[in-house]
């Protein structure tokens, strides 16, 4: 395979990894930017999306679940995944709204350390509740039948089809959210709230409704991330915490409250990770051929550290600082 | 209930009890006022700590009635003290300066790995191992502190978490030849204390009451020393500036203090205790699991500190006691079979309840109760 083809393949893999970070980071970022609320339970919403998605897709995939016994599997109605993609965001959106109302709102005036402690505790509770409900063992999330297998791409050759779908779904969602924030009145209020929520309220705009919607949208995106990311990872109650840290890093290096920043940050981290997995350090003269894969997890933190040392407010961060 | 707490309050009660042997209310008031005068002194608190750690293993594991209820065992006593050191050091940062670090696993793990690696490769003397491991943790905490303190507030929490995860992943794969990767660090061998006291042997008994092993004595001495050092810090200029930063950072910096420097000092000091505790954890368990660097370890010390009560000396110790007692005893089975498998969930719920309703933690509730009773007695 040519170097170019190899590079494109690595980039595609990086886009896919980054896509999951982006989906999580946008939610974190708009909640943090607009509501000034630190949500350590964002990873928990991802896992909720993952488990609910698994449940829905199994039950509505007629080749599995209850309905399979009635022969629905043979009809080719393998639509569980689409159902999950529609149902999960709705459920997690409602969950997010409930979280804003009952968890976040009473804590807006408490110090941010209290917010972190609260959501951290909540994340533990959700994780453990899922463990009680679904068991602690890892399960696997089947890829939808219509998107499994490889697809032939020009130049690259065979590429896992689901990875492309993750990129496409993420791209569509990001464009939708971006349009919502940039071009609607709702978005205008939210953006104004990010800049100066007090002033928005002084102008007579009731900000509680946009707030609750922002939380809902952020949560729904985390839920979607769980569903689309599900087939690519193992499903167990602790994966939420594993994605939370990279997602936070994405927000921090991209710049707070900026959707473009979240996208940029996610792609940087995803692509860095992807390159490190594939690359090796080859110095023939010294007889060195050292695979960098073990460094792939370390690499994203190193990149983040470097970016923060150079630009503490993040790549596309505004001057507004909430700390 | 933690015993550490029981000890301290009991000793305090003892102070009051001597009184009832006196000749009447006048001398009772006299002794009480003298007690009020000395109770805040460093020497009093250190003396109480010594009495507390001396009685602790007996109360937890061997005393009639109490230890039957607690079902504790001797090794758990030293483990509680180890985590106690971690938690009181952590509170120096969270409780005194208001900085919430989610990366202290890195410093605890650094101490633990350094101690383990030294014992397996260089030297076996526990004092030397712990000393060098603490130095290693100090150096690392300076680096992490300088990096993380570039941004305040929530960024600090996120950055400490991120850098600690970076170290976890480094230990897990690229540095696996040193750290043992997923298998953890095995081959840890701790030699005798000062060349002559084997850590595993029991201490001589006092009045038929066993005080634990030399290992326990070593750890208990470290706890007493930690308490003494922390008291000294809190009662010095540093302690006052820490409090000022907690109250109002901007004002502290306007007054002319270099806030960033004091924050770094607080971070490094708490990192020192984290490293000490980590090294002692290795001395205690003679094994370093990779999970000691994972961020759940940071989470555990956060839970302990907040659960027990931030900003107090005894709160984090109580928190450590409760957490480990629940982890080792409640999860263990009879008579807790009905709740054992869900202990993590229950602890999570309790933690959330404490954050929402009792920000002062268990010790805060005890204090409130005590002052409520005192007020009632005053009324009568």
From TrEMBL, chain A:
It is a multi-pass membrane protein. It holds the Pfam family BPD_transp_2. This is Branched-chain amino acid ABC transporter permease. CDD domains: TM_PBP1_LivH_like (cd06582). Keywords: Amino-acid transport, Cell membrane, Membrane, Transmembrane, Transmembrane helix, Transport. The chain crosses the membrane at residues 12-33, 40-58, 70-95, 116-134, 162-181, 211-232, 292-310. GO terms for cellular component: plasma membrane. It is found in: Cell membrane. One of its GO terms (biological process) is amino acid transport. It comes from the Archaea. Belongs to the binding-protein-dependent transport system permease family. LivHM subfamily. GO terms for molecular function: transmembrane transporter activity. Its main location: membrane. It comes from Halococcus salifodinae DSM 8989.
């Amino acid at each position: 395979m040519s170097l170019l083809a190899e590079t494109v393949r690595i980039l595609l893999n990086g886009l896919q990894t980054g896509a999951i970070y982006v989906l999580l980071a946008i939610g974190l970022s708009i909640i943090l930017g607009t509501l000034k609320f630190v949500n350590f339970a964002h990873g928990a919403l991802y896992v909720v999306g993952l488990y609910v998605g698994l449940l829905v897709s199994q039950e509505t995939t007629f080749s599995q679940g209850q309905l399979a016994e009635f022969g629905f599997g043979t009809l080719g109605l393998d639509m569980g995944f689409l159902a999950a993609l529609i149902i999960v965001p709705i459920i997690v959106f409602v969950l997010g709204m409930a979280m804003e109302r009952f968890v976040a709102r009473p804590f807006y005036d408490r110090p941010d350390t209290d917010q972190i402690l609260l959501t951290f505790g909540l994340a533990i509770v959700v994780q453990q509740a899922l463990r009680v409900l679904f068991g602690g063992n890892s399960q696997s999330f089947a890829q939808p039948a219509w998107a499994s297998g490889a697809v032939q791409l020009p130049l690259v050759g065979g590429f896992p089809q689901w990875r492309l779908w993750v990129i496409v779904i993420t791209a569509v969602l990001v464009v939708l959210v971006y349009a919502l924030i940039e071009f609607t009145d709702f978005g205008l209020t939210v953006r104004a709230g990010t800049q100066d929520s007090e002033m928005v309220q002084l102008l007579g705009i009731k900000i509680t409704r946009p707030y609750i919607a922002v939380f809902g949208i952020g949560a729904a995106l985390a839920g979607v991330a769980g569903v689309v990311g599900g087939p690519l990872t193992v499903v167990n109650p602790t994966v939420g915490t594993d994605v939370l840290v990279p997602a936070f890093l994405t927000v921090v290096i991209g710049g707070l409250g900026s959707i473009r920043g979240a996208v940029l940050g996610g792609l940087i981290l995803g692509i860095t990770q992807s390159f490190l997995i594939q690359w090796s350090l080859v110095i023939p003269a010294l007889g060195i051929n050292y695979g960098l894969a073990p460094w792939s997890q370390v690499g994203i933190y190193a990149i983040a550290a470097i970016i923060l040392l150079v630009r503490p407010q993040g790549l596309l961060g505004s001057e507004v600082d909430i700390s | 209930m933690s015993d550490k707490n029981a000890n301290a309050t009991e000793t305090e009660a003892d102070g009051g009890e001597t009184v009832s042997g006196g000749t009447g209310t006048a001398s009772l008031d006299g002794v009480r006022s003298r007690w009020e005068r000395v109770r805040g002194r460093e020497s009093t608190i250190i003396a109480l700590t010594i009495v507390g750690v001396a009685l602790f293993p007996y109360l937890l594991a061997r005393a009639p009635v109490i230890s039957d209820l607690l079902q504790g065992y001797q090794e758990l006593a030293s483990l509680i003290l180890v985590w106690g050191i971690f938690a009181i050091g952590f509170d120096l940062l969270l409780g005194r300066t208001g900085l919430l670090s989610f990366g202290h696993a890195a410093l605890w793990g650094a101490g633990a790995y350094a101690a383990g690696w030294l014992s397996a490769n260089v030297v076996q003397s526990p004092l030397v191992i712990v000393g060098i491991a603490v130095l290693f943790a100090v150096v690392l905490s300076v680096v992490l502190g300088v990096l993380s303190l570039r941004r305040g507030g929530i960024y600090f929490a996120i950055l400490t978490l991120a850098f600690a995860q970076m170290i976890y992943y480094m230990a897990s794969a690229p540095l696996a030849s040193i750290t043992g990767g997923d298998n953890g660090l095995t081959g840890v061998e701790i030699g005798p204390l000062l060349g002559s006291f084997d850590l595993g042997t029991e201490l001589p008994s006092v009045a038929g009451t066993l005080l634990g092993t030399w290992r326990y004595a070593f750890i208990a001495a470290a706890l007493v020393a930690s308490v003494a050092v922390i008291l000294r810090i809190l009662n010095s200029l540093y302690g006052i500036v820490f409090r000022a930063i907690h109250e109002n950072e901007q004002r502290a910096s306007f007054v002319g203090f270099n806030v960033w420097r004091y924050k770094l000092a607080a971070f490094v000091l708490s990192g020192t205790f984290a490293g000490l505790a980590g090294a002692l954890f290795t001395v205690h368990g003679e094994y370093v699991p990779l999970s000691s660097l994972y961020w759940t370890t940071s989470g555990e010390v956060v839970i302990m500190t907040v659960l027990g009560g931030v900003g107090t000396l005894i709160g984090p110790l109580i928190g450590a006691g409760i957490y480990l007692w629940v982890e080792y005893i409640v999860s263990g089975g009879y008579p807790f079979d009905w709740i054992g498998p869900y202990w993590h969930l229950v602890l999570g719920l309790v933690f959330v309840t404490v954050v929402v309703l009792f920000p002062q933690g268990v010790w805060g509730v005890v204090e409130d109760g005590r002052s409520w009773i005192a007020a009632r007695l005053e009324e009568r």
